[in-house]
Amino acid sequence: MSNSTKYIFVTGGVTSSLGKGIISASLAKLLQARGHSVTIQKLDPYINIDPGTLNPYEHGECYVTNDGAETDLDLGHYERFLNVPTSQANNVTTGRIYQSVINKERRGEFLGKTVQIIPHITDEIKHRIQILGKSGEFDIVITEIGGTVGDIESLPYIESVRQMLWEKRNQCLVIHLTLVPFLQAAGELKTKPTQHSVKQMLEVGVQPDILVCRTEHHLDDSIRRKIALFCNVAQESVIESIDASSIYEVPIMMQNEKLDEVVLQKLGLPDNGAPELKEWKDFLHKLQNPKKIVTVGLVGKYIELKDSYKSIAEALEHAGATNECDVKVKWIHSEKLNAENVSDQLKGLDGVLVAPGFGSRGIEGKITAVQFVRENNIPFFGICLGMQCAVIEYARNVLGWENAHSTEISKMCEQPVIDLMEEQKSITNLGGTMRLGSYDCELTEGSHIFNAYQEKDIKERHRHRFEFNSKYLNDFESNGMKATGKNPETGLVEVVEVSSHPWFVGAQFHPEYKSTVEQPHPLFIAFIQAAIKKQEVKIGSKEMSK
Ligand code: GLN
Fold first, then answer.
1. What does the alpha-carbon distance between residue 284 and residue 318 come to, in Å, rounded to a whole number?
2. Secondary structure letter of residue 372 according to DSSP
3. In this model, does residue 2 exceed pLDDT 80?
4. 466 C-alpha to center of ligand 1: Å?
5. pLDDT score, position 536
6. Cα 515 to ligand 1 centroid, rounded to whole Å
């Protein structure tokens, strides 16, 4: 299939945050549901090599793939919608493009030529776009271009699109997202920003084939006609993207707008009947018709920007839908949590999830949260740093080692119960050097985690430098905290549990990355089940005391 692979480019104009990632994922879902193999790639115009070194406040969560790439959070949406893993090839930044061109230059591969943006940088971009297409695995590659047209840093990408449109005529398509704002004072939707945005595309030689217009109000026929006329597209290529209450509705909305049909027709692909979306619709139905509600606390230090915990929030939603339960999340700032207010903050919650993170800020709040939920039998789910906090808390309050800590925070602490991994000790560079990506884990039969997965050998994704210090394993196990998941090769402790607690699970890995609409994650499902149970016990005991 490699030479007939179709390429769809998704660009954005007028403003950022129009939802290019969700539109790309929704279109991909519709095409996949029609039997095509589709993948999505994100090109990010910033100079960082990857988002691994970025503060989550900048771009939200760093999403990790099976092959250990630290990527943009949109890749999470791609996996959640398509249920197909992505890889390093699915996310490319300007930094990576330049790094590889400069490395080639240093190796003398340009044979003395002057190295320039055109053709060398654009060639590298085109090469990266086509890696997935040439793999032969995909009929269609959707490439989302980060940023907004008109940004200086997006120019080489749009230029590369222009070149590909020319070189691969009939194989390429451009979808441009714009905003159609509603002016309250005029009582009207305005098309001018869309017209300007398309003009900007034309200035750099690209005519969009399809316009997806983000709007708060329906686009009537006259607006569609006007946009079509001014922007040189057919009226059926003006697609309305109205605000939705859930991102998971967007594929259905795009199907109603016939985005998939227009795309197939423009790419010359056969239309073999409606997409098969039964599973998707079943999920949506459950999501929108919950039979119960639970409230779980999410304790983290980046909660001002909820995108920092995107995959966790989505995994909770998937698990909620599976249990026909609306999962309300109470966002709790770990920095503001202390022994005085913890009871007020956490009392009454049906479960508490302590989030991943780095560094010392907010860590004592996380440890305090763990102590409260452990002592009050509230279901607990700790992920990565959250698991490490559970270990520190147990050491301090059950083993009585009040100075126990992680050497990430306190290098010289008395009991370094969480310590730097051996292979990390010689590493000085920050980018891409953690223990990253998918590793095997062997679970102990009969444990909470085993009961969740119903299998012994699992694979999960990682992103950490520190680990449970196995030197202390006996002390923990003989006092009730068990290692119920280990890496089979190294013995590294991946999961801890307190068996006497209704549901207390800390995982060194990040299960949230693997939860998708079609495969909600078993560990999140089990956590929500434990929260539902907790609520039933609560209601039961209230009734008893009446
Ligand atoms: N900071 C911890 C470590 O590096 C935990 C990382 C995380 O939560 N992703 O091990």
1. 10
2. H
3. no
4. 6
5. 83
6. 20
Where on the phi/psi map is residue 324: left (φ > 0), alpha (ψ -120 to 50), or beta?
left
pTM: 0.94
Q: Which one from 172, 231, 384, 389 is the annotated catalytic residue?
A: 384
CA 277 to chain centre: 22
501 is catalytic: no
Instruction: State yes or no: is 384 an active-site residue.
Output: yes
Measured between alpha carbons, how far is 466 from 478 in angstroms, rounded to an integer?
A: 23
- CA 504 to centroid of ligand 1, rounded, Å: 19
Atom of ligand 1 nearest to the CA of 358: 1
The token pair at 187 is 């009582």
Ligand 1 interacting residues, C-beta cut-off 6 A: 356-358, 384-385, 408, 463-466
User: What would the mean pLDDT of 449-471 be, rounded to a whole number?
Assistant: 97
Say how many Å lie between the CA of residue 374 and the centre of ligand 1.
21
Grouping H, G, I as helix, E, B as strand and the rest as coil, residue 418 is strand
Q: Which residue's CA is the closest to the ligand 1 atom numbered 3?
A: 464
Residue 546: pLDDT above 70? no
Length of the chain: 546
Q: What are phi and psi of 60, to 5 degrees?
A: 80, -160
In the block, which residue shows the tokens 């607006």?
A: 223
Say which of 36, 176, 405, 510 is annotated catalytic.
Answer: 510
pLDDT, one tens digit per residue, over 168-220 is 988 999 999 999 999 999 999 999 999 999 999 999 999 999 999 999 999 99
**Residue 274: how many other CB atoms lie within 10 Å:** 12
How far, in Å, from the CA of 355 to the mean position of ligand 1? 10
- 55 has pLDDT over 90: no
Q: Among 2-11, 85-94, 187-196, 383-392, which is the least confidently predicted range?
A: 2-11
Region of 157 (left: φ > 0; alpha: ψ -120 to 50; beta: rest) is alpha
pLDDT tens digits along 349-366: 999 999 999 999 999 999
**Crossing angle for the helix pair 221-231 and 192-203, to the nearest 10 degrees:** 20
Nearest CA to ligand 1 atom 8: 356
Tell me the three state secondary structure of residue 305.
coil
CA distances from 513 to 337, 357, 496 (A): 27, 15, 20
User: Is 69's pLDDT higher than 80?
Assistant: yes
DSSP, res 546: -
Catalytic residue among 124, 314, 497, 512: 512
- State the DSSP code for 108: T
Tell me which DSSP letter residue 52 carries.
G
